[in-house]
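Attaching the record inline, Q. Sequence:
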Amino acid sequence: MNSLLKRQIRKYLSKELQESGQLKEFLDAVNKSYVNSDNQFSMLQRAMAISSEELSEASDKLKKETDEQRRIIEKLKKVLETLNISDLDDTGSLEHSSTIKLVDFIDQQTKEIIKVNEQKDKLLTSLEQQNQELNDYTHMISHDLVSPLQGIETLTQWLIDDHKDDLNEEGQSHIQLISEHVEKIDTLVASIRKYSRINRSQKELYKVDLNKLVNTILKESRISDDVSILISEKLPVVVGDVFSLKELFKNLIDNALKFNLNENKQVEIGYEDKGLHWQFYVKDNGKGIDESYFEKIFIAFSKLENEYKSAGMGLAIVKKIIDLYEGEIWVESELNNGSTFYFTMKK
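Structure, as predicted:
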């Protein structure tokens, strides 16, 4: 625990309480929990950063291999065009020396394609393994953080309940600060666990009525009376799973309300049929987003404002879900003129 905070807490307690063993036990417990939580959380962030870099490098390498395969295929097409035009004799047979060379060339290119495909398969296997290891590690560390957080919260509440008469206003403020920090870490850990569970959750796909799903989200969120929710028309039935789709729409709706300071908040939800895809949008009349942040907001732990209750994971979770549905997501926005988040899903 911060030494200044520890000193400030002691400053506003009675002498009897300072001399009691209960206060020392409380401060020691909080300090141990802080150290343990900080260490594990730092390990988690380092692991996610390192793994993200490895996955990015592997993805770039895979793209280069795919591009190389395309170039080889184009070469083969040109060879076949040449073969069809100039290397067939009157009987339709292949007897020229140039034709034999072309056949040898095709054989060589075919072997190169096989080699590239083998390398690509190994890379994909490695990529999947790293992603699974990252998910498993994230789940384990975030789970281990829950217990000390609950311990700090419980001890803080005991101190308030048992010794509130010994604490002045400033002392109570410091205790409240501890609770707020615990809540912040707890929110972040919960978001990380959701993020790591997304791949594992989508095991079976089935029809989901988005009208029922969105109405359930609105009821559970207990939207205040100053918020107007407009659903432009009846939403479609899509193929997916309730867990991921609920997280998708809930995060976008929460995001539309969280950064909206208008007295009359408005959120509009709609869609268009784009043939092979559904294209949805969630529009708000909030403060808007500067164009320079359009890409950053979908990165994990990125926050445009220092809001302690926000983990900076909401839109990263949305992006990961959209990727699972082989869709795209983007934002159109102007400062002080609201934002519209568009995303697509394959039918």
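Strands lie at 206-209, 227-231, 237-240, 265-273, 277-284, 329-333, 339-346. Confidence is low (pLDDT under 50) at residues 85-89.

More tomorrow.
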